[in-house]
UniProtKB/TrEMBL annotation, chain A:
InterPro entries: DUF112_TM (IPR002823)
Annotated source species: Brevibacillus centrosporus
Native organism taxonomy: Bacteria, Bacillati, Bacillota, Bacilli, Bacillales
UniProt keyword Lyase present: no
PANTHER family listed in its UniProt record: TRICARBOXYLIC TRANSPORT PROTEIN (PTHR35342:SF5)
Protein name: Putative tricarboxylic transport membrane protein
Domain DUF112 intervals: 20-446
Pfam families, A to Z: TctA
Keyword line: Membrane, Transmembrane, Transmembrane helix
Domain of life: Bacteria
Stretches that traverse the bilayer: 20-49, 116-140, 208-228, 326-349, 361-381, 402-435, 477-495
UniProtKB/TrEMBL annotation, chain B:
Any Pfam family hit: TctB
Keyword Membrane: yes
Source superkingdom: Bacteria
InterPro entries per the UniProt record, alphabetical: DUF1468 (IPR009936)
DUF1468 domain location: 9-145
Keywords linked to the UniProt accession: Membrane, Transmembrane, Transmembrane helix
TM spans (from-to): 39-58, 79-106, 118-137
Name of the protein this chain belongs to: Tripartite tricarboxylate transporter TctB family protein
Length: 508, 153
């Protein structure tokens, strides 16, 4: 069977009525999450894992996993659409990947072209979503075929590469990012060892035997961490919300933004595939590219439509591109995809090369649902943009305590243990203070998710080599991965030492 | 970047790394005839964490003297009230039931965020706690601690 055939089967899955509803709810909540300040895609996805777990409780396991991941992925790319709304209307980005959109989006709004800017952002996001999905369809099979041929040693090195890629670009200090990665890996060792059944670091506490729950930690550090930040730093919205008048862009607008949308999509897609770079960097690069090749670069920053079209396309394409390493290699490249991976593992579905063989319904159903979801988002965002804009005015007074209550409900619904709830609060407090001091949280969660797999591959490889560590540099593929991993960490460091400014990923 | 915070954090991670390092000495070093046991991974990582925190500790000495930029003062009072309320909420959840504890927590939370508007506070807290309980328990067949028995229901 070829990719096209698989995709058709995927559509058959995605078009089941419950999956259409799940995709719709996902993109709707995603848009809301993108619009609401103080809650980003990563905490949105984390918060919704327990909700989807209870919604899909009655379905058979395979269908439950498909529906859940369809909803959660919908939140992820839906947030990319929603994030532009606050950037354009309020001069504050709803999430970090829309930071660049502010530069030209807000000036456009001040000129009375807010509606047009929002429409172009939505159209650009749609085109980009489709571009990255087409890429995903064509790359998924060949990449997972290659990945299937990897030995345990190769896989270990590939995962190390994934961790280094995220750490090298996450936050201001590589040392801190690496500390968080290693700490995440260490937390993953708590509990019963899968291979030998030995209890590690459990101190005879029954709660610890099954290990620290990924969900509890993710909701704690991301959702509660952000909530505490809002409470402590009075992240209130001040300033005027621009009015939306005309929504449909003119022919001239479309003509001016066609190029930037296509270029932004391509930049975003390739940037998204590379682990660690994520949507924020992609939108920066797309914006800089447009400014460089534009005939009149002085218009940028004063309301150039290309300055909205390019970054908004790029961040959406990047979120699609980021699904590729997650689904085919089992290596999440960003914090949000790490959370998605954790969700899949909760359903006993292991992302990676075997996903397409063992669970084609899930993999292709998800891909097909993303086509449908993007179409829904375009339809939602064009006429309803005024309704979403109203959401910006949601008073934090009600929003903040409710997010806390939803986090607690969610974790309790899945875990039914007070121990996890206390752990949740601790993670929230610790997460806030660490994140405030530039200790990035994404590597921690990635370490926690990848930990058991890295350990498994490490031990399998070492067992075949009788405990000899040189197996990792004797195998050529593994050696190449390790060299790239080292370069990934060291090149930005060397560039920093030479006084060059390195763009880092600020996406949580 | 805060020099003091980073210094204390590096020491904390140093202690944690050392604890994992020492803790993994007690774990079996072999499994089923393989000489690669469950101890090797935490052992190596613990050592790595120790090295990295030493590196961070060293880096803190090179931080430029930070200028005291006075950001807006952090609202610790509001934060502590909500944190303590949340802690009581999770500890009492199984004692007094989901609806009551959630209602009380939201009441405190809303009023701490900003005082006043009692009517909408009561309405939203009530709707949220009853709504979630009803949806989850009656529609989705989940289970949450119900109303406390001493209320006589």
């Amino acid at each position: 069977m070829d990719a096209f055939h698989y995709l058709l089967n995927g559509f058959a899955t995605a078009l089941q009525w419950q999956n259409i509803i799940f995709a719709f709810v996902g993109v709707l909540i995603g848009t809301v999450v993108g619009v609401l300040p103080g809650i980003g895609p990563i905490s949105g996805v984390a918060l919704l894992i327990p909700v989807t777990a209870s919604l899909t409780g009655g379905l058979p396991p395979e269908e439950a996993a498909t529906s859940a991941i369809i909803l959660l992925a919908g939140v992820y790319y839906g947030a990319m659409y929603g994030g532009s709304t606050t950037s354009i209307l309020l001069n504050t980005p709803g999430e970090s990947s829309s930071v660049v959109t502010v530069l030209d989006g807000y000036p456009m709004a001040k000129q009375g072209r807010a509606g047009v800017a929002l429409a172009i952002a939505a159209i650009g996001s749609f085109v980009a979503g489709i571009v990255s999905l087409v890429g995903l369809v064509f790359l998924a099979e060949p990449l997972s075929d290659v990945a299937l041929k990897l030995s345990p040693a190769d896989e270990f090195s590939l995962m190390i590469l994934g961790l280094c890629a995220l750490s090298g670009l996450a936050g201001k200090s590589v040392t801190k990012a690496l500390i968080m990665t290693v700490f995440g890996l260490l937390l993953a060792t708590i509990g019963m060892d899968n291979v030998s059944g030995v209890a590690r670091f459990t101190f005879d506490m029954p709660e610890l035997y099954s290990g620290l729950e990924f969900l509890t930690i993710a909701v704690g550090v991301f959702a509660l961490g952000e909530v505490f930040k809002t409470i402590l730093e009075r992240d209130a919205n001040e300033g005027e919300i621009a009015k939306i008048s005309r929504i449909l862009p003119t022919k001239q607008d479309l003509k001016e933004s066609a190029g930037p949308i296509i270029r932004g999509s391509l930049v975003g897609f390739f940037k998204g595939i590379v682990p660690g770079s994520g949507a924020t960097l992609a939108s920066f690069l797309a914006y800089l590219l447009e400014k460089k090749i534009s005939k009149n670069p002085e218009k940028f920053g004063k309301g150039a439509i290309a300055g909205v079209a390019a970054p908004e396309s790029a961040n959406n394409a990047a979120s699609g591109g980021a699904m590729i390493p997650l689904l085919t290699l089992g290596i999440p490249g960003t914090g949000t995809t790490a959370v998605l991976m954790g969700a899949l593992i909760m359903y006993n579905v292991q992302p990676g090369p075997l996903l397409f063989d063992e669970h084609p319904t899930i993999a292709w159903g998800l891909i097909a649902s993303m086509f449908i979801g993007n179409l829904m988002l375009l339809i939602l965002n064009m006429p309803l943009v005024k309704v979403f804009a109203k959401l910006i005015e949601t008073p934090p007074k009600y929003l903040i305590p409710m997010i806390v209550a939803i986090s607690i409900f969610g974790v309790y619904a899945v875990r039914v243990s007070v121990f996890d709830l206390v752990l949740l609060l601790i993670c929230g407090v610790v997460g806030y203070f660490l994140a405030k001091n530039d200790f990035p949280m994404a590597p921690l969660v990635l370490g926690l998710v990848l930990g058991p797999m890295i350990e498994n591959n490490l031990r399998r490889a070492l067992t075949t080599s009788n405990g000899d560590f040189s197996i990792f540099i004797e195998k050529p593929v593994s050696l190449v991965f390790l060299i790239i991993a080292v370069l990934w960490i060291s090149v930005p460091l060397i560039m920093k030492m030479r006084g060059k400014k390195v763009v880092v990923n600020v996406e949580g | 970047m805060s020099k003091t915070f980073d210094r204390y954090a590096s020491l904390l991670f140093l202690v944690l790394g050392a604890a994992f390092l020492i803790g993994s000495q007690n774990i079996s070093a072999s499994a089923y005839g393989s000489n690669v046991g469950p101890n090797i991974f935490p052992l190596g990582l613990g050592a790595l964490l120790v090295l990295l925190s030493l590196r961070l500790f060293y880096e803190t000495f090179k931080y430029k003297q930070e200028e005291k930029k006075q950001g807006p003062a952090l609202d610790y009072k509001r934060f502590l009230i909500i944190l303590v309320a949340a802690l009581l909420y999770v500890l009492l959840l199984e004692e007094i039931g989901y609806v009551v504890s959630t209602f009380l927590f939201l009441l405190v939370g809303f009023q701490t965020m900003s005082k006043g508007k009692w009517l909408s506070t009561l309405l939203i807290s009530g709707a949220f706690s009853f709504g979630i309980y009803f949806l989850y328990v009656n529609v989705l067949d989940g289970s949450l601690p119900g109303l406390p028995a001493w209320l006589g229901f």
